[in-house]
Design goal:
The complex is a heterodimer of chains A (265) and B (67). In chain A, 71% of the residues lie in helices and 0% in strands. With 265 residues, chain A is mainly α. Chain B is mostly helical. Classes of the chains: A mainly alpha (265), B mainly alpha (67).
């Protein structure tokens, strides 16, 4: 954040820093020689969020009690929301063994999105495409694997790729089904999360830079006051988007797994 | 005047998904108001529909930066 603030003088000309400066971070000194394990700010945040989530669920469920304390009841309500609100409603009782996976997706995406509004961090890790892409690849492998395990290899791909239609138009329909079911599904999962987080991060940065540049005595003061007044609205909207994207990612993963487990015909 | 024409293209590309989302959410609200007991099912289907429609707008957003 400090390099971004240096780009705009206090009360100076308004200018958005280059877009790469918002999302690219240098490798932390001392780890340059570690190859693919080199640590930068984003991987440090991913590691921290994983440790935080493990600690949270360990503390919540290490000694489960019949009358739950605060942490346990919070964790229980999250799991209960995934189990009853998503899995049982979309997949049905057959999908209960996917509750742990979907819970992990939900809390991981929610926490990593929440970094966008955490003071002192202000960067969603899911706005880097490798994070969103890896999550989408996991969903892709899980729903194809579930379909093959449930229906058998040949039957699953016949079910997915060959719709019930006259033989004449199959040469057109099969490529469309292939692209939409096996390529576009993980791609849109990835792009939806990534693009929402990138847009939200740019919006937050623009709001903060506007306040920083215009909230001084001068002709631009009304703009600064306006930006200051609407900034809670912007942050509230971003909080809504954070929860919604975590929910939609989890729910679409459940829908794709459901389409593998419960073939339509 | 300087700038990228990609921005205009993205502005045009949001029109279709905007109309689609308007119709979709309006119809969902209408059906929820008619049958409040089916609200949960309608809401789930609405989010799935939103996700599908929104994909077009997001593709436009990404391609505006990428191309």
């Amino acid at each position: 954040m400090s390099s971004i603030l240096a780009a705009v003088d206090y009360g100076g000309p308004w200018e958005l820093p280059p877009i790469g400066e918002l999302f690219n971070f240098p490798v932390i000194p001392g780890t340059e020689n570690w190859g693919i394990f080199a640590v930068n700010r984003v991987s440090l945040m991913l590691l921290t969020s994983t440790i935080m989530l493990c600690a949270f669920f360990y503390v919540a469920f290490v000694k489960p009690r019949i009358v739950p304390n605060r942490i346990q009841s919070l964790a229980e309500s999250i799991v209960d929301f995934i189990r009853n609100g998503i899995v049982l409603e979309i997949i049905g009782p057959k999908g209960l063994k996917y509750v742990p996976l979907l819970t992990c997706f939900f809390v991981f995406i929610f926490l990593n999105n929440l970094f966008k509004l955490t003071p002192g961090i202000m960067l969603p890790t899911t706005s880097r495409i490798h994070v969103a892409g890896l999550l989408a690849v996991i969903v892709w492998l899980v729903y194809i694997g579930a379909g093959i395990k449930e229906q058998g290899f040949l039957h699953y791909f016949k079910e997915t790729l060959v719709p019930p239609a006259p033989k004449m138009i199959l040469p057109i329909l099969v490529p469309i089904e292939f692209i939409s079911n096996l390529i576009l599904r993980p791609f849109t999962l990835m792009v939806r999360l990534f693009a929402n987080m990138v847009a939200g991060h740019i919006l937050v940065v623009i709001t903060l830079i506007t306040i920083h540049a215009f909230l001084v005595w001068g002709p631009g003061l009304p703009v600064g006051i306006f930006a200051l007044v609407i900034s809670p609205l912007v942050f509230g909207f971003e909080l809504f988007i954070i929860g919604l994207q975590a929910y939609i990612f989890t729910m679409l993963a459940a829908v794709y797994i459901s389409s593998s487990l419960n073939p339509a015909h | 005047m300087e700038g990228s024409i990609n921005v205009i293209g993205y502005g045009l590309a949001t029109l279709g998904p905007a109309i689609g989302l308007g119709i979709l959410i309006g119809k969902a609200l209408e059906s929820m108001a008619r049958q409040p007991e089916a609200a949960g099912m309608v809401r789930t289907s609405m989010f799935i529909g939103i996700a599908v429609v929104e994909a077009l707008a997001l593709l436009g957003f990404v391609l505006a930066f990428a191309l």
